[in-house]
Each structure stands twice: as structure tokens, then as C-alpha cells.
Amino acid sequence: MQLFFHPDLSSPSITWEGPEFHHATHVLRQGPGMTIHLTDGAGRLARAEITHLEKKKATLVIRELTEKPAPSPEVHLFVAPTKQIDRMEWLVEKGTEIGVAGFHFFTSYHSERRVIRKDRLEQIALAAMKQSNRLHLPVIHPLIPWRDALVKAGIYPVRLIAQAGGPTHLTALAATKAPVALLIGPEGDFSEQEIQEALMAGFTKVQLGEYRLRTETAALIAAALIVPF
Amino acid sequence: MQLFFHPDLSSPSITWEGPEFHHATHVLRQGPGMTIHLTDGAGRLARAEITHLEKKKATLVIRELTEKPAPSPEVHLFVAPTKQIDRMEWLVEKGTEIGVAGFHFFTSYHSERRVIRKDRLEQIALAAMKQSNRLHLPVIHPLIPWRDALVKAGIYPVRLIAQAGGPTHLTALAATKAPVALLIGPEGDFSEQEIQEALMAGFTKVQLGEYRLRTETAALIAAALIVPF
Question: β-strands A44-53, A57-67: how paired?
């Protein structure tokens, strides 16, 4: 099944245009009477028929609409972006494939990178969602300072901060159905003060074994050990 | 701890030269009397002292030698390389970080790529081993045809082939201490005949959930669910 994206599947007849429309009709030669599968990235899957085709748009009628719940537990990654942005792009691609609910980026004391391209990461997430046949598009949140991230992450019932050498292994805390916020530090790790602030905000230190994982590896593997497969 | 590589730590006094020597002494300014940590990639860690320094080489005396067992179970990935080679490079980097024992590459019916650069992948594995403070360097095996890979994978006690939609989930088979061979198909998946050949050779189909993962994602996540953390 080839999956396309349409942000609004709430009415029975929809107008389709833009690059995906163009790819489906001009490259893949989809035309009137043919069936297209669309998701809105919010859990809905539509089986729709092309009823009218013009050069720059088509009218589709939804023949069947199904809905899936989001992966549970929800995993919300809070990551200090790496110096090399391709490592974050890969995290977003892989994290989307395995069902991460949201990517939050923050700057911290040892952060080397202070800018991300949110639109580019959104495109990567969209492509990965379609490629993996998922119906939930993770949210790419803007880059914010550490303390704002701590407040934002604080709303989730399960609050974890990745820390090498801590007493608790992630797998001991992974069996939860409640939404999880997981903080992953920069390449130079969190500062001592940041760790203290997280502990005071009710976060639990978790470790991922005795070896030193890169920021993006730690984030992906931790998510993989929490999300359902 | 910054870890360096030396292929032979079997005698108490060693000669050190090459790019790592150069980096340590010329860039990091390590000199006589200073301590260097070295691994041979086969489980050994040496704490050594620089006793004599020349421009192009140094003599090191090993003061302490410790040894670690390899991660158990061993995971041997058998992967049909992806069209984009950077996806394989990333698999080797991340797989090394999490403790994969070996990477085997094969060409199969639907393979798009028929060549890999073994030396480049070895460099990536070496860098990832040192970066993650591991003492075991995974073996990068040359690209071989599908049937040879099947014979090679057949020597491992636990033999798995990743297949979407199968009855058995990987996690049901992941709790093993015996070495595992895991076959991951190309982007166009295995052919029906290849799957039959694997089943006849005693492989068990395992799936990784209902979504479509890319080759390299499937390989990494499957390994992460098997290796110990």
C-alpha cells in the first residue's frame, strides 16, 4: 500500500493538490476511478476514489474511513541537538518509523547547536510516516531553552532523564502505558546543575547500560525499548 | 576515558605508530610518563605508559591489562545492502555502539546494491567502538551471494529471518544466550523462493510489528531488542 498525506479527512469529498497529488497522478499515473490511500497523520486512514481529475487538482470521494489509536505509551523525546544536524535528521526519520509521538529540542549548558530547521525535520517525519505506513505524524517542536523544556516535559506522567551510571536501568521503567517524557543530554552531557533541576522537577535518572552512546543513538534505542513493537 | 586501538596487546611492551599515535601525541599532547588506554578490539583493555617518544612512534609499557567477555548473546546481522550506502554506514555505526558482533552483507534477488566498501565500513566500526568505549570490534564480512550467506548464517544456533506479518514476534525469541543469526531482506524484501530456502535451512520467521521498517531500521531495532543493555 502506498500512503499519501492529506491534512483534512473530515468531509466525504476532498480536494487534492500539491506535490503529492502531482506525484500520484503524473508520475504514478493514478486517474479517475482509481483508489488512493490517505492519512491525516492523526490516526485516520481513508480509502478514497478519484472522481474528478484536473491538471493541478483532483476531487476525491472517501469510500471508507478507519481510525487507529496512537502507539501507547506515547514517547516524547526531549533532545539537545547534536552539532551535526544529520544526526538529528536520522533520529527523526528512525524515531518516526518506530512510533515516537513527539520530538522536542532544547539548548542546554553544553549544547553546541543553537538552531534547527523545523520545516526540514517535519518533511523528514512526513516521509518516514508514509514510508512506514503509520497513521500518526509525530510533532516536531521548536528549539527552546533547557528550563522551558523542563517545564514542558513536566506535564507527562512518566518523566525520565538519561544518565550514564545511574542506579536504575531504563528497562526497569519501560513497562508503562502512561505517556513518557525522556530527556537526552547534549554530546557533552548535562551539567550537574541541569541534572539537579531535573531531579527537583520529579524526573528519574535512567541509564542505558555501561557504554557511551551518542545522543541520537541513546534517544532512538531508549524509545525502541519503550514503544510497543 | 579516551580509548585508542592497537591490534596486538599480547606483549608487555608495544610499539605505537600510525594515525592514532599521531593524534594522541601531536594533537592531544600525550608524552612520556602519561597514561594511554588501548583496546585490541577483542575484549582487552590496556592501561599503558608512554616510556619513549619519537616523532613517528612511541614505546608503551602495559601497566594493567583487563579483559571483558563479548556481549551475550552475540548478534550476527545478515543484511542485503540498501541502494543508499549511507544507510549501511549508519547501521554499522549504530550497531557497533549497541554491541552487534558481526555484519554480513549479501546480494539477493531484489537487491539493488551489488558492491560495498568493506574498508570504509571497518573504519566506521572502529571509530564507533572507541567512541562508545567498547572493547569488541565487530567483524565486517565481505558481500556474498544469498545462498552463501544462508550457509554461513546456518552455523549459528539461533537462526531468524525478518518477515512482516509472520506469526512470531521477535521479542518472543529474543531471550536467548546462544549466538543469533538474523537475516534482513533488501528494500524490495526477500523473494518467495529465498524465504522457502531459509525455512528449509532451519530459520524461523520473526516479525517486528505491523509497520514497514526500512532495512537498516529493522536490523538495528531487532539487534537492540536482542543484545543486552
Answer: antiparallel
- Supply the pLDDT for residue A165: 77
Look at A221 and B98 and tell me if their CB atoms are within 8 Å.
Answer: yes
End-to-end CA distance of chain B: 20
Pick among B45, B88, B124, B221 to test the A interface (most A CBs inside 10 A): B221
- The pLDDT, as a whole number, for residue B124 is 98
Please give, rounded to a whole number of angstroms, the shortest distance from the CA of A173 to a CA of chain B.
13
| Strand segments (E) across chain A | 3-5, 13-17, 35-39, 44-53, 57-67, 75-79, 102-107, 139-145, 158-162, 180-184, 204-206
Among all chains, which residue has been given the C-alpha cell 544529520? Answer: A86
CA distance B138 to B83: 23
Helix (H, G, I), strand (E, B) or coil at A97: helix
Cβ contacts (< 8 Å) between A134 and chain B: which residues?
211
Query: Packing angle between helix A215-226 and helix A85-98, nearest 10 degrees?
Result: 10
Q: How far is B167 from chain A (nearest CA, A)?
A: 14
What domains are defined for chain B?
3-67 (2.40.240.20), 75-226 (3.40.1280.10)
- Whole-structure pTM value: 0.93
pLDDT of res. B17: 94
DSSP label of B55: S
Q: Is A128 exposed, middle or buried (0-12, 13-18, 19+ CB in 10 A)?
A: buried
pLDDT in tens, A155-175: 999 999 999 877 788 887 777
